[in-house]
Amino acid sequence: MMIDARNLSKRYSRPEGDVQALSDVSLAVDENEFVVVRGPSGSGKSTLLMVIGGLLTPDSGRVTVCGDDPYALSPDRRARFRAKNIGFVFQQFHIVPYLTVRDNVLSASMALRTEDTEQRATELIERFGLADRSGHVPGELSTGERQRTALARAILNDPRLILADEPTGNLDEANGRLVLSSLAELATRNRSVLVVTHDPAVEEFAHRTVCLEAGRITGSSESVKIQE
Amino acid sequence: MVCRELLHRRLAALLAVLLVAAAVGAFVAEVGILQSHDTRTEEMLEAKQAEADRELAAMEDEYRKYMKELGFNVLILPEEQDLAEFWRTGCAGGTMPEENVRRLAATGTTRMRHLLPIVQARVRWPEKERTITLVGTRGEVPIVGRGQKEPMLDPVPTRKIVLGHQLATDLGLTPGDSLRLMGKTFEVLSVRPHHGSEGDVTVWISLADAQQILALEGRIHAIEALKCHCASTGKETIAEEIRELKDGIRSALPDMQVVVRENKVTVRAKARQKAKEVHESTIRKWQSDRADLRRERENFAAVIVPLIMLAAAACIGLLALMNVRERRAEIGILRAIGLQSSQVLALFLARAAIVGIAGTLLGSIGGMAVIAARSQVGGVPFVFPYPAVVGALVLAPLVAVLAGLAPALLAAGEDPAAVLTED
Lengths: 228, 423
Prior knowledge:
heterodimer, A: alpha/beta, Rossmann fold, 6-stranded mixed beta sheet, 6 helices, B: 9-stranded mixed beta sheet, two-stranded antiparallel ribbon, rod-shaped
């Protein structure tokens, strides 16, 4: 099992009052599975993604990714664990503004460098149709190109799990579909993809959809993927 | 990555570099200026010392010439003469053989120029009913082996008399007049000009007449050696020469006492010594003034330079903090993709170090340009401030890193989850 989250709870303390972001959430994702977590804004989707991604310690519950509990590791080992096993894609892309497409893709290797990093970066850039934009900085790219750059960066280290937070939120339909199809393709190569979104169009690419409302899972449904 | 970031935010980076450069430039320039000041002081001191030495050497020659002309006076008195009595009355009570003058002249001494045998007594002038100083002199006695010098005192012919100014005025006597002195008739040869001293009530007659009147045939009261001279000019060496002269006189005239009168030679030597002391004191004062000036500059620099450095460090810290705030999303994603907090810390510290090194290089060049400009304008020597540049190269990047440490720690401690979920 790629993700095994059990009884996760997370509460934020805010001046205006505590917010229960997650309440006893359990979720399992298998290898080669593309799962969508859907829910309205504030339902706890991003919190769930961060907790599973080893970035946000849950108040209670347990999560294992690729068989390991990231929160049982020291912060440095957890960072290395993330570098090796998890790739992140965000709605705002979060690509480094002063680095070229190639350097942004290669920035993932700062955490985990392998022998074939350079070649792999070249392959990914070509695969995502960015070869002619390789030397360009993000300011010179379209939003679709930026998200593809972020996607290439996310999989440079060949992680087994891709976590995407609203990956199509800032994209037009065509680019959105391109990104989603790329994610769906990744889920066929011994990887798993977990996307949190409120966009119902994503469900078309997923194997399964989980609904999250007010920090609780309210339902789950199997999808028939368009590609199939 | 760090260099790309610096180029990307070039304005902020340039500002940070300029701040470091300003602090380093101020430090290097100030140290360089102080070094130039020291070098200039040394040069000026050497010049002043050389000038003083030249002046003193010139004075030495002058004094040597003066002393040859001026000389000093030595009074030779009988051994038994009470000097206290002599200084009180101006006259010697004891006598010595007139032969002593010839014995002294026969030594052929080179230091004594003029030897004058003297008979001098305070006597009652019965014909005029007053007390006078009677001096009998015959002029200079030639010294063996030396040519006749210009007479120190014109010899007074026998039966002639020279009157002091006051006596001549009181008695209404003028040259050519006749007068009686202690039973003998004299013709007034001349009247001495007014001196305002004992000389105004003194009469000079020939030595033989004085010896006859005072019943001192073949005897004299004293010998005056006038315008004796010294070969050297130093106060100590003059004293040594005078001592040697006195010893020489005593060996020729063992029963005599030798008195050196305060004389122009020693006064000159004292003046020369004083001039030397004044020179040295002036140089010391000048050195002290320069040291004060340096101290003032140093004190000023000790306040201003640290202030500039502190302000620069604070501004660098502030700029680094702004940089961290601006790059929160970048930090978040770098942490998310697996960078450890120490790697993030290293990125920001490396940035601070690069800013520090660039600023130090720029500041060192700027500081040296200031020193060079000051050297050109002010005519002071250009001194390459090695210690300041080396110190700045080590310290400034370190200070820049320290100034950027708190923001870097803040960056390393950023919660990626919080950053990445921000809109």
